[in-house]
Amino acid sequence: MPDESEFLRKKPQQSRSRSVVNAIIEAADQLLERTGDPNKVSLQGIAQRAGVGIGSLYDYFANREGLLGAFLARLTDANFAALEKEVLGTQSMPFDQALPAIIDATLRTYLEKPDRTRAIIQAIARLGWMKPVMSERDRFAAVLTKRLVAEHPKLEAERVQLMAEVLCDAVMGVVTSELWRERDGEGSARVREEVVTLVRGRVDALLREP
């Protein structure tokens, strides 16, 4: 995933300029969540929401694509850090017991604010960012692989990595579908149980292999 700084026209050097950039990116986040559509978010609206002049916004971002890129880079890093922390925080328990918490954290990350996530998916498509996003997903799969191999050292890391990548893809496919299905709480709970069963079943099958 490209670094946030790659989308800035100039790097903020002082605390005030960093605060301006942060306010602009946070305003973009808020408007994406409110509208659910990146095409409905204008630079003028972002500047107004951030409480800065449009000239100040253009000091740091050349266009809307650059601003969306910086926002997505920051959000992706934050999501990865949060999910990695969840995985590492379960090291004291068997992976099978930790699995529901890891699944819950993943679903919560992407489904807690559905309008925002729908807007993000559209922005990713608009920027042609599917390949970088998949690289980040594989990076999280590597965290899961390390966690599982540490508990079961006889497993072949390459095989576990492939399984983890496929399972991550499967879970994110469910997430994407659920964003547009908009189930009620009971339906979402059943989906969560199905996801846990799916992942647990594949992991158990791998552990039973000779």
Automatic annotation (TrEMBL):
SUPFAM superfamilies in the cross-refs: Homeodomain-like
HTH tetR-type domain location: 18-79
Tagged with keyword RNA-binding: no
One example GO MF annotation: DNA-binding transcription factor activity
DNA-binding region: 42-61
Pfam families given in the database record: TetR_C_15, TetR_N
Gene3D superfamilies found in the cross-reference section: Tetracycline Repressor, domain 2 (1.10.357.10)
Keyword Transcription: yes
InterPro entries: Homeodomain-like_sf, HTH-type_TetR-like_transc_reg, HTH_TetR, TetR_C_15
Keywords carried by this UniProt record: DNA-binding, Transcription, Transcription regulation
The protein's name: HTH tetR-type domain-containing protein
